[in-house]
Amino acid sequence: MDAAMGILHEYGLQDLTIRRLARHLDAAAGAMYWHFPSKQALLGAVADRLLAPLQELKATGDWRADATAFTESLHSCLTSHRDGAEVVSAGLATDTVSVRPASVLAPLLDDAPIDSDLISDAAATLVYFILGATVDEQTAAQLAKVAGTDTATEATDDDTDGVSAATAAHGRRIRHGVDLIIAGIAAGGTAGE
After folding, report:
1. pLDDT attached to residue 110
2. Which UniProt key words apply to this protein (predicted)?
């Protein structure tokens, strides 16, 4: 798995193939198919590795704080490697992941003031928002890097952390979006309203 994670980090999702992994490990491609019967299985295993820290989250009794901590942790997991959000999205779409973010989040929302049958929908909404926002963030960063304006390293005059204005703007939009979704959950809506 370390080799697969290294390929993802260095070359991105496009180059994360079973054949490339076999070459990297100086092994026969057939040997890799013993461990990963398809590229989808490989992506699912990589997604599980990316999402593993989510399984450590525990409810604190404050559903808002727990939901916020979850979204921050999910975003961190997704941005820990190049194309992380796309890898996780692919793993979820092909049902090859064992760590399902919405299933991890749902129990943290048990005390939210919404109908219990809406908790899964609320969890899925937060997860889909973070996935989509992170795909957008990572795509913009890659395009900027190709254009020679790498958003990950280009600091602004008023930013002491070395974070570009574009990266900071993505972070603000994600935080505001999460706050809006949590406010909607806190409003205690019911299905069909």
Report:
1. 94
2. DNA-binding, Repressor, Transcription, Transcription regulation
pLDDT of residue 54: 97
Instruction: Specify the pTM.
Output: 0.85
Domain of 6, in residue numbers: 2-186
Asked if residue 75 belongs to a domain, the reply is: yes
Query: Is 43 inside a domain boundary?
Result: yes
Would you say residue 29 has pLDDT above 90?
Answer: no
Least confident of 3-12, 62-71, 175-184: 3-12
